[in-house]
Amino acid sequence: MKTSKVKMSESRVHNQFKLTSEDHVEAVGEEVTLPCHLSPDTSAVAMTIRWFKRTECIYLYKNGQVTERSGYEGRVSLITQELERGNVSLRLIDFRRSDRGVYICQVIHGEQKEEAAVGLRVRRVLESGSWYLQHETQEDKLKREASAGELELKMEKELKEILREKMMKQLKEKLDDMTQEVREKERLLDDMTQEVREKERLLEEKNQIMEQREKLLEEKDNQLEEKDKQLKERDIQLEALRKNLQDKNSQVENFRVLLQEKDLQLEDRNHRLGEKDRLLEERQTTKGK
Prior knowledge:
By secondary structure, this protein is of the alpha+beta class. It is built from two helices and twelve strands, in the order ββββββββββββαα.
């Protein structure tokens, strides 16, 4: 069994309609159309369309969905572009001799249900559609309804399966998207982790450099303290030398003053010696005379 969806735009539907068909058609070749039309021309897009072969529902169109019975899958179809004009004919391809017989078209809209039958023959008439409907037993009618109900039930199951598959596909796509998103976030997290590790490594290197610099600074501070200490000691030494120099200068000044006094004394003594020498010379001169 096959379920598909017919895409058609809805249009206005008349409240009352009838079905018209031919009493029988003859199969020529591998394709045949079983005619059936709404009268007056009325859109059948929003209607339920059932096609039976005697009591077996072989084709169901409902709510835009299509279900075909096994054995007819891919062989029967409506002319979807003609539904707007009320054409509900059934196209049958790959014709087989077992396809001969009476086909019934049933159209349901709201509370209204209409039927028309057409006989499909090969060369000679097996039985006409109108004759079949006139002589159809109540049991056959019930069989047809049961067959249609069975096909509708299968349609619902297939629609549920399609819906489930669609939901599963959406869930899978969503899961794939989420998985892809998680993988992308994991990749980003790995990149960020790698970046953090690299920054931690660089930070560790910088910390080591800082420790080395701090150590060098500490050594330089110690050296500066030692130099300050040496400078203070030198200042003390220079101050002592300055005081010593001042003392020496004082002593030199004292010696200079003393020398000046000695020079004066010596000059005075020399002067007195000169006077004595002059007096002595005068005495000697006087004695010589």
